[in-house]
Amino acid sequence: MTWSISVDTTTCLGSGICAGSRPDIFQFHGSYAEPITDHLDPDEDVLDLADTCPAAAILIRDESGAELAPRP
Ligand code: SF4
Questions:
Q1: What is the number of the ligand 1 atom nearest to the C-alpha of 28?
Q2: A GO molecular function for this record (predicted)?
């Protein structure tokens, strides 16, 4: 099972939290972050990062396309 990951760079606030916490998943470009890859193995830490992103810009989906995070 793999998940998909994306960052809405139009809403990203450039806090750098995600890239600072998980540089293996995110790269920071000065004013916004992007995922290094479109897919990742299931990783609870990344769900937590998506939940805590101040812009709710990190979107994680499962293989069926169901949204896993950010969680309500
Ligand atoms: S945590 Fe959210 S707002 Fe901060 S850099 Fe990452 S995607 Fe952007």
A1: 5
A2: iron-sulfur cluster binding
